[in-house]
Request: fold
Amino acid sequence: MAGLSMADIEKMSARDAFGLALSEIGAENVNVVLLGADAIGSTRAAGFAKRFPDRTFNFGIAEQEMISAAAGFAACGKIPVATAYGFLISLRACEQVRSDICYPNLNVKLMSTHTGLTMAEAGTTHHSTEDIAIMRSFANMTIVAPSDSVETVKAVRAVIDYPGPVYLRMGRGETESVNRGDYEFVIGKAITLREGTAVTIIACGIMVAEALKAAAKLSSEGVSARVINMHTIKPLDVEAVLRAARETGAIVTAEEHTVIGGLGEAVAGVVCENSPVPVVKVGLNDCYGIIGPEDMVKQRLGLDAESIFKAAKKAILHKVD
Amino acid sequence: MKLTVSELECKARELRLDSIEMIAQAGGGHLGGSLSAMDIMTALYFNVMRIDPEHPMKADRDRFILSAGHKAAGYVPVLAARGYFSRDLLPTFNKLDSRFGMHPDMHKIPGCDASTGSLGHGLPVGLGMALALRLDGFDSKVFVLLGDGELHEGTNWEAAMGAAQHKTSSLVAIVDYNKCSMDGPIDQVVSLEPLVDKWKSFGWETIRIDGNDMAQVLGALKEAADRGNRGNPVVIVADTVKGKGAAFAEGDYRWHYGCPSEDQLAEARTALGGE
Ligand SMILES: Cc1ncc(C[n+]2csc(CCOP(=O)(O)OP(=O)(O)O)c2C)c(N)n1
Reply:
């Protein structure tokens, strides 16, 4: 990729990886257009903007207009890639996403950055901790939350090729690499990163790295934990979830998002209907994020490996025989 | 407390340095827009507004909404200097358990009338406040500070129509027209021109000034009070310079968010700290 090695990409933030991939895709597909809302720089789409100024449209600080315009582009055969912070796409332009894009099932790619609490210092207005719940509730929507920068590159390609509305969720800072070696990224197909028998941790986005740390700690105590990278939240890989329920008998979910309506409830819903086992959710417990450095905020709010570790013990304790 | 023009100039200089110091020790902040609006915020809090920091929740106080909430790095030092809380708290900016970070929270910052951060919310919130205060028989003013890029958001223009319809003459909007947003010079992103004519056509009284000239800022804020007597909302379009007072940042949109280096900090201390 543009002379960059895998190791180079591993060191990047997800949004930088997105920018890199988008710029390459722009050269391959003339139908791809970039839409921005005065954040083309900070969503890291500037590489595309520089290479393809004629296919770049900056709407200024007008996210609702941008999202509706994206519907217009898609209705005329383009593949609009609309970029903004997660809270702006999911909250500010919520109705536009639902009624202009999802209802007519248009081929719009919503690239959201700075999601979860990755802009912790910016405070609650800038945290996107409800976006998965909102997007999940829209029929026709697909939601992808890659776990690291290498996976983001794969995900961007897959998302552009995937027909229909897609919401791609990316954080702000550098990611820890969790996926080893080359592998095929398929929307809707979860990846088992670690085999285990006593409990399964199902995580998305940057919580996958925390899940792996929790699994390592559990293993040091003799508890065998499976870790699933659920990079696609909708459509959920139901088969992987049910296999985990049957084979390990206890599930923990982890997401950088409220526990209401997110990955956890998606998993719990499927498990409850088909193969009931305890599901313990790690996420924001019906509260807003607080201000501070990202790591400290996450630790305070229980969004780290330690919380997943404790949740796993709880899930195991509640196992039904 | 009513400072004179020269006292206000001196205060704004001190506050610019407070803001730059706070941003530097936090490792980054919205420097450009905090500094461009400093003269306006200083004049409001140290001369114009009817407020009492000893009793920050008085029902008949004037209200201020920092609609461009990212200018908190400028706003927080103003509130501290005005006595709402100790200046010693400034170094807690962006830290865990701090009362303040990049965007202001009305329940954590004494003296702050509205929680902001997402652009395009302050004017309609201010309209609601102005209508409620009028309903209660108060003659309080509601000042709303807007970024120029912020005016891209349609909600501002919805509120502009609503305020004219409801003859909300106590509502004063101030546009920090520093000609930059985040991605670049505003004319290259989405131009606002003709800006004054836009507001006029929406039924507002308009005043245009150099927003970094304290005498003009004070004059305009006083004039806004008189103009309100005509029954219309008032907007002050204040031409400013992004990063005003920090030579390294002046007029450069890339200083929307950033962290000054040691050298730049020293330069600012010399420029703003001395008499
Ligand atoms: C609704 C919304 N969209 C985008 C942002 C991200 N953002 C923060 S500041 C900014 C640029 C603001 O420009 P302007 O209003 O001109 O402020 P100033 O130049 O005075 O700092 C952007 C896009 C936001 N906070 N809220």
